[in-house]
Amino acid sequence: MRYGAKLDDGRAITPALYDQLLPQVMARIEEEVGPERFARGHYREAVELFTKMTKSEDFVEFLTLPA
Predict the structure, then answer these.
(1) What is the residue range of 1's domain?
(2) Which of 17, 41, 13, 15 lies closest to 29, judged by CA?
(3) N or C end: fewer C-beta atoms under 10 angstroms in the chain?
């Protein structure tokens, strides 16, 4: 988000775009794995962690550190 990256369609990757696309991606994952498995999984916790890391001003080298 901070390096001016763009999607294939030319849209800039911004925090607002991330927030807009996240529910769509989560719905697609739920559809693929099924509602029961989705509910039992740790998808929401994973999204919280990923979002925190993605939007943070500080770069964390290893996912396992905040996890």
Answers:
(1) 1-67
(2) 41
(3) C
